[in-house]
Fold this sequence. Notes:
This protein is an alpha/beta fold and 373 residues long. It has one domain: Alpha-Beta Barrel (TIM Barrel). Helix content is 38%, strand content 15%. It has helices spanning 2-20, 31-42, 70-75, 102-114, 141-145, 152-167, 201-218, 236-240, 262-283, 302-312, 345-353, 360-365, and strands spanning 48-53, 58-59, 62-63, 81-85, 118-122, 179-182, 224-230, 251-257, 286-293, 318-321, 326-327, 333-334, 357-358. It has an 8-stranded parallel beta barrel with strand order 1-4-5-6-7-8-9-10. Strand 8 (251-257), helix 9 (262-283) and strand 9 form a beta-alpha-beta unit. It starts with a helix and ends in an 8-residue tail after the last helix. The model has no long low-confidence stretch (mean pLDDT 95). It binds beta-D-mannopyranose (BMA).
Amino acid sequence: xxxxxxxxxxxxxxxxxxxxxxxxxxxxxxxxxxxxxxxxxxxxxxxxxxxxxxxxxxxxxxxxxxxxxxxxxxxxxxxxxxxxxxxxxxxxxxxxxxxxxxxxxxxxxxxxxxxxxxxxxxxxxxxxxxxxxxxxxxxxxxxxxxxxxxxxxxxxxxxxxxxxxxxxxxxxxxxxxxxxxxxxxxxxxxxxxxxxxxxxxxxxxxxxxxxxxxxxxxxxxxxxxxxxxxxxxxxxxxxxxxxxxxxxxxxxxxxxxxxxxxxxxxxxxxxxxxxxxxxxxxxxxxxxxxxxxxxxxxxxxxxxxxxxxxxxxxxxxxxxxxxxxxxxxxxxxxxxxxxxxxxxxxxxxxxxxxxxxxxxxxxxxxxxxxxxx
Length: 373
Ligand code: BMA
């Protein structure tokens, strides 16, 4: 009888543990990475974590001022998700393609992690076949980096550098900082060498899988969740056309920028999020708006009138606003979140005060890197 009770006891605990802890694509992910994965899933109904690319690095009219952030200047709190970018790390450059020094980036990532935010990283890697930028769509590039391709060795050496960066991301106790890595983003569009008509769907699937296996098994990088993300899409089939498979992905998302009127944007975003929600549900993944923006925010009530109603309709883990690059060489300015005293700042405060929108303090309360029951 005692034995039976003991077996029943163990069985119930095992069921309990397994039902609460799912493993991400990397079955050997660090404990903190597994916890992040499970907590992001569990928190889907709590709200949308607001993110911002390069938030701690610069904003409109400033660069590298300790503790500064355009979002903090306006709302008093930092974003719950911080985005960073690795382009040019493959060339051993000390700064990325947007001039952010990798050493500073490492410190920003440590800071974001320490304060409970989630970190996501993109990689606008150069074209390995031509040596030009990510935007050089030379045909045959993807095939050239796959095994037996003429640039496979070069590509491996680039992955070695990316792996070294990920493995250099540790907290004060020497533990690896979990990152949502978002390679080959917008892969249904044709502007990057890895996208759209510049390769076959099968080739980009292979490249995605190859990259992940190389980082995981050859380089032993285990602090990554992987985000698969498209640009605008019109059907579930289109979204999934280049999908590398469940065992290679944790987050599913898309990038969306408003270029037409508000209603058009709302319709598109609602349609895509409805499709994304159902795909994420079927595949048991984390749905996210991996990039969004309305350049220079010409509508001062866009946040509460356009974006908020869309987000309220859907399950979205996080939404990453693109970078506040500020003044650019060609006399243009680039920004996607308000800065102090800009025209949509007040509306942005209202948006952030809505219970659906989570900033860093809200994320910190969730202890995303801890095992929560
Ligand atoms: C683009 C623009 C560019 C930038 C690139 C990589 O969308 O913001 O200015 O270089 O992303 O971050």
